[in-house]
Amino acid sequence: MQSTYSTMGSSKTAILSGRKLIDLRSDTVTRPTAGMYDAMMSAPVGDDVYGDDESVNRLELSVAELLGKEASLFVSSGTQSNLIAVLGHCARGDELITGDDYHIYIDEAGGPSVLGGIAMCALPTDHLGALTIAQVEAAIKPDDIHCPVSRLLCLENTVHGKAQSPDQLKSLADTARAAGLMTHLDGARLMNASVALGQAPKKMAEPFDSVSLCLSKGLGAPVGTVLSGTKAFIRRARRDRKLLGGGTRQAGILAAAGSYALDNHIERLTDDHFNAKRLAEGLSTIDRLKISQQTNMVFISPSDGRQAELQSYLSDHGIVISAGVPSIRLVVHLDVNEDDLGRIIDAIKKFYQ
Ligand SMILES: Cc1ncc(COP(=O)(O)O)c(C=O)c1O
To answer: Which of 90, 103, 129, 251 satisfies CB 3.0 to 4.6 Å to 48 for a cystine?
Structure first.
């Protein structure tokens, strides 16, 4: 099947057979809006490896300010940001403690172990994506020659769309810090959590030594993540970014898209959350589906196990999903509007008729 791109509304949107293609696989699929393209086109740039790209510098300063940290670094992806953070906090033979369904453990190709010689201790998370103080305490290794050195606690927010409260994360971070560990937050979707809980980004970031914030997910930028922490940590991170081949030159074109996203797309995340809720409600009358929703993600678990058939049926109707088992994740984002919700609900209802 062939798709083309055309301008619809403010966004470049994929069109399939004259109809808008609705892509629910992730919030990473969004295309820059017209305003974002304008910001990219007019971005002042320099060579960021020399530190003189004005647009990158502006973005780094504004994220540090947003999260209440001393400094920030613009990097190419969430994966690179987490890896740079881990390399900054840990040495070979150290261990990081994290959740068994957190991205850093299951979806980043084992980077900390492969490239950093860092062991990963993954603790089972509960149905809300959380860890407990008791779990973290029990996982921190004694000073024993048989053990790796527990050096870092890595948490995540949101976890598969579930917002983690800053107080709860603070109690985990405090536990780690009391035992001499550093703390890192994978905040790929931290702004979704902040908006959903009505808590300031600074408060969400406060318990952590370093925080990774993605611009290319719900915020709608095409590329980029910003890693924040102390000045000394970011100085080291800049070296590790270079080591990993992530030093780029006129990166201001991309940083400008990120700044535009921060200036224009944080508050509107409430629209995505509202639309995700409406989608979940619209599907709730289908008795073969178990549904859960938080922030911008709706999970549907079909009792008949026909995920692949549903995927193919929706694809024929211009709706793209991943056929997850047991749950299918439907992600609502900048390029999904109210009309689209009606189309999605109708198509899924028809499939189950
Ligand atoms: C929670 C979380 N952390 C990190 C990442 C990695 O981001 P990237 O795809 O930019 O490497 C993702 C990607 O979806 C994610 O969901």
So the answer is: 251
CA 351–ligand 1 middle distance (angstroms): 31
pLDDT tens, the chain, 353 aa long: 344 444 333 445 666 667 899 999 999 999 999 999 999 999 999 999 999 999 999 999 999 999 999 999 999 999 999 999 999 999 999 999 999 999 999 999 999 999 999 999 999 999 999 999 999 999 999 999 999 999 999 999 999 999 999 999 999 999 999 999 999 999 999 999 999 999 999 999 999 999 999 999 999 999 999 999 999 999 999 999 999 999 999 999 999 999 999 999 999 999 999 999 999 999 999 999 999 999 999 999 999 999 999 999 999 999 999 999 999 999 999 999 999 999 999 999 999 99
Q: Is 272 in the pocket of ligand 1 (CB under 6 A)?
A: no
Quickly list H helices, 142-288. 166-178, 190-197, 201-205, 231-243, 252-264, 269-283
**Which of 26, 80, 103, 125 for a ligand 1 pocket mutation test, highest count of atoms within 8 Å of Cβ?**
103
**Residue extents of the structural domains in the chain:** 3-31+268-352, 35-264
Topology of domain 35-264 in CATH is Aspartate Aminotransferase; domain 2 (3.40.640)
- Ligand 1 centre from 103 Cα, in Å? 7
Task: Select 3-31+268-352's CATH number: 3.30.1490.120, 3.40.50.720, 3.90.1150.10, 3.40.50.970.
Answer: 3.90.1150.10
Percent helix, strand, coil in the chain (nearest 5)? 40, 20, 35
Is residue 112 lining ligand 1, measured as CB closer than 6 Å?
no
Give the separation between CA 291 and CA 327, rounded to whole angstroms: 9
